[in-house]
Amino acid sequence: MLDLRRFTGHEMRLTEKLGEFNWGFLLLLTLIASFGFAMLYSVAEGSFSPWAMRQVARFGVGACILIVVAMIDLRLWMRVAYPLYAVALAMLVAVEITGFVGMGAQRWLSLGFVSIQPSEVMKVTLIIALARYFHGLTLEEVSRIRNLLVPLAMVGAPVGLVVLQPDLGTAVLLIASGAILFFAAGLRWRYFIIAGAGVLAVIPVIWSRLHDYQRNRVLTFLEPERDPLGTGYHILQSKIALGSGGMLGKGFMEGTQAQLNFLPEKHTDFIFTMLGEELGLVGGIVLLALYFIVLMVSLNIALQCRNQFGRLLAMGVSMTFFFYVFINTAMVMGLLPVVGVPLPLVSYGGTSMLSLMFAFGLLMSVHIHRNLEISRGPSAFW
Q1: 3 state SS of 101
Q2: How far apart are CA 376 and CA 341, in angstroms?
Q3: Of 120, 205, 315, 379, which cross-links 184 as Cys (Cβ 3.0–4.6 Å)?
Q4: Could you tell me the CA-to-CA distances from 254 to 49, 238, 259, 274 in Å, in that order?
Q5: Cis-peptide into 158, omega within 30 deg
């Protein structure tokens, strides 16, 4: 039976942990989230209802979750890594059986009083589970074929379930997060080259299996003007809004493309476009600069950690956060096909917000327990 007293402060008291907590990092996250609050207030034409107030409440709950998660000993998170992954995987299976359809895909699971998107939960639990697995291997053992079967299955199972929903954006994020953990654990370059060649070889097969709307997204990415009132509408309106914002923007709540409803999904996937139209290039750069600072602080936490589990966990959280930002901003600029990836802390969404704050709580736990020595091998799990 797990003795929680071993992880609640015998090595570090709660007051010491609170002193080690990076409060500046939480302030930085609050500044980023404030951009979202402002844009959600604007998209509702100067009202906190229905989006802005809910988002503020979710961020408040998320901040509490972040602090609580950060206080918990890193060894406890390592011990529950596999059970957390199993729960997330079970929820993905449940989506296929009892999930309900929203926005054209079966991605949500109703728990009665609340609906959650299990794929968002899986993004975090996959990182924890892979960090736990690779923590128990030496650098030489990581590249042995037999030791790669389990982590490949750990990535492949949720990816397969997410593709069935279908949600290619999340599937890509899961694969990217897994690849980062493989790389950070020390997997040799030749495996990545082989994997890349394999992906290129099966592209024709993948293309033949895509849904019509997914093929249209790729074709629209290559040539948006081919169907300006259909599949190309979203990205063309996004480019018009971004370009019309100019250097300083049209002013808060003055964006014509957004306020006149030419811009679709402006409170979720295309919220960065709305920000660019109203606050201009300067506003967009300020937000991206804040994201960059978060990324640098996160990577620094990974580099300073003395144990492998913490390093891998922090690296996974950091790079998953980066992929979120990169894919969303590149998507709305027309540099990538349109996929359903929210802008972290800014786009409206409950599960994505709380999952990300939980992940940042794990990051802070790594920071607080950075000098902790954790033994390798099976004994560390039991």
Answers
A1: strand
A2: 35
A3: 315
A4: 19, 16, 7, 10
A5: no
Q: Report the SS3 class of residue 106.
A: strand
Tell me the two tokens of residue 223.
């040539």
For residue 108, give the 3-state DSSP assignment.
strand
Tokens 């990076």, residue?
A: 22
Between CA 296 and CA 304 the distance in angstroms is 12
Residue with tokens 């492949």: 156
Write down the pLDDT at residue 18: 87
> Which residues make Cβ contacts (< 8 Å) with residue 143, sequence separation at least 6?
186, 187, 188, 191
pLDDT band of residue 10 (cuts 50, 70, 90) is: very low
pLDDT at residue 339 greater than cutoff 90: no
Residues 6+ apart with CB under 8 A from 293: 28
φ, ψ of residue 280 to 5 degrees: the values are 75, -170
Q: Is the model's pLDDT at 5 over the cut of 60?
A: no
Q: Which of 14-18, 52-56, 59-63 has the lowest mean pLDDT?
A: 14-18
| pLDDT band per the 50, 70, 90 thresholds, residue 351 | confident
Pairing mode, strands 105-110 and 100-102: antiparallel
Residue 92 near residue 122, CB atoms below 8 Å: yes
> Tokens standing for 258?
């957004």
Please give the single-letter amino acid code of residue 248: L
Give the residue with greater pLDDT, 379 vs 97: 97
In angstroms, what CA-CA distances link 354 with 58, 66, 69, 140, 256?
A: 7, 9, 12, 37, 31
CA–CA distance, 8 with 125 (Å, rounded to integer): 22
